[in-house]
Amino acid sequence: MRTLCAATLIGEFFVIGFAGLVAMKDPDLSMATVWTVSGVAMFLCILLCGMITRPGGIHLGWALQAGLVVSGFVVPTMFFLGACFAALWWASVYFGRKVDEAKARFAERAEAAAEPEGNAA
Length: 121
Hints:
By secondary structure, the protein is an all-alpha fold. Helices cover about 80% and strands about 0% of the residues. Helix 1 (about 1-25) runs antiparallel to helix 4 (about 75-115) and helix 2 runs antiparallel to helix 3. It starts with a helix and ends in a 7-residue tail after the last helix. The mean pLDDT is about 90.
């Protein structure tokens, strides 16, 4: 799960950076505001790459997805991109868990097959 979720977050990192460049063109927003918000969101993407397997990591990822969708009020394209990344996040979590379960079953079977027949319980 960690690999799939981290790949999604790294993609979001770049999308947030590019959205910040687009948001700079809005005359109502200061450059400091745009880059503070974008910078915090980008930092959160990188931070979450290491926190995915820890308690609350997935929930923080969902909060980031919601923030990405809400950023569409500033950069309208982000409504679409935020929804796409939310779908990617769901797929990363869902299929990542399936892969982790399959790996655990495979390791269990390999361990059972490696035991000598005389030591089997």
